[in-house]
Amino acid sequence: MRIEIFAHKVTEILLADGWHEIADFKVESYVIVSPDRVIGASSDGTGFTCRDADGYIHGPLTSILALRTTA
């Protein structure tokens, strides 16, 4: 069985500190960089990015506990 979640329908994400109302949810590979080198990356290269009222949130997909979507 496969659960399909459409990224453009995600309206909230549950992280360790609680629910965040978000916009522009995307799943992408990511690395953390300094101006001259790569500092780190997720073990499988898969992360997420989105925007909430305080700015952008980026992290590994494994940090998301749940998603809320529009119907």
Backbone CA Rg: 13 Å
Q: Which strand order do you get reading across the main beta sheet?
A: 2-1-6
List unreliable stretches of 5+ residues: none
Strand segment tally = 6
Strand content: over 45%
Inertia-based shape: globular
Taking all residues together, what is the mean pLDDT?
Answer: 90
Instruction: Report how far apart the termini are.
Output: 20 Å
The domain tally reads: 1
How would you sum up the major sheet? Answer: 3 strands, antiparallel
Order of SSEs, N→C?
A: EEEEEE
Helix content: under 10%
SSE-based structural type:
mainly beta
User: Can you count the helices?
Assistant: 0
Provide a compact summary of the structure:
The protein is mainly β. It has no helices and 6 strands. A 3-stranded antiparallel sheet has the order 2-1-6, with no helix packed on it. Strands 3-4-5 form a 3-stranded antiparallel sheet, with no helix packed on it.
